[in-house]
Design brief:
Strand content: under 5%
Shape: elongated
Low-confidence stretches: none
Structural class: mainly alpha
Number of helices: 3
Number of strands: 0
Distance between the termini: 28 Å
């Protein structure tokens, strides 16, 4: 596999993983109703996921 292909593949994967936090915002009311929690709590769960993802990806550099 060439280096340019690896970089393009990495960029595409990063885009999809990064946008997953934003896509879920449209479904917060459905998620909150199904889980029996408030919409604000469902939004905080999304924020916790995003923060965990950010910390987890940086841990390789320590």
């Amino acid at each position: 596999m060439s280096n340019s292909f690896k970089i393009i593949l990495l960029a595409i994967i990063t885009f999809f993983v990064g946008t997953s936090e934003y896509v879920i915002a449209g479904f917060l009311d459905i998620i909150a109703r199904d889980m029996g929690i408030s919409i604000a709590s469902a939004g905080q769960l999304t924020s916790i996921f995003s923060l965990s993802y950010a910390i987890g990806t940086q841990s390789q550099h320590f």
